[in-house]
Amino acid sequence: MSEGTETSEPLIQQESATESQDDDSDTDFDPEEIEKEIMGNVAKLKSEHEHWLTDEITLLKNTQKLEGSDKKETINLVNKAEERERTRRMSIPFSADVEETELDISVQSGQLSNVHQQLLHLFAIHDVSCDFN
């Protein structure tokens, strides 16, 4: 039993040593640094994706008439608007973060390609379903 006692004591000492190390890392917590980092990330996202930000006034000015005199003309107007939007979105260049690795960029590129294919498939289904109505 004395052997069991000897082996359990070092385990307890090791646990207390790791707890004291964890306590030291908590003192490094600086809310101001974290806030600066978050605000920097927000500013970066806004600058990279400002072309997606629109306000209601801009939307109202740029709205198109999507209702035709008959059903066929309405379908054609909607299809043309979808095609213009698809072209506009695909013309926006992909921007990668400087700190990203080639693997990160490759994975994101593959995901973007999959989303693009799914969207084109959905648009094709919509276009075909409108042709039969």
Can you tell me about this structure?
By secondary structure, the chain is mostly helical. It is 77% helix and 0% strand. It has helices at 2-26, 31-48, 56-62, 71-91, 102-132. It is elongated and about 65 Å long. The N and C termini lie far apart (86 Å).
What's the topology here?
Layout: H1 2-26, H2 31-48, H3 56-62, H4 71-91, H5 102-132
Mean pLDDT reading: 69
Distance between the termini: 86 Å
Q: Outline, from the CA principal axes?
A: elongated
Main sheet makeup: none
Primary descriptors:
133 residues, mainly alpha, 5 helices, elongated
Entry summary:
The chain is mainly alpha-helical and 133 residues long. Helices cover 77% and strands 0% of the residues.
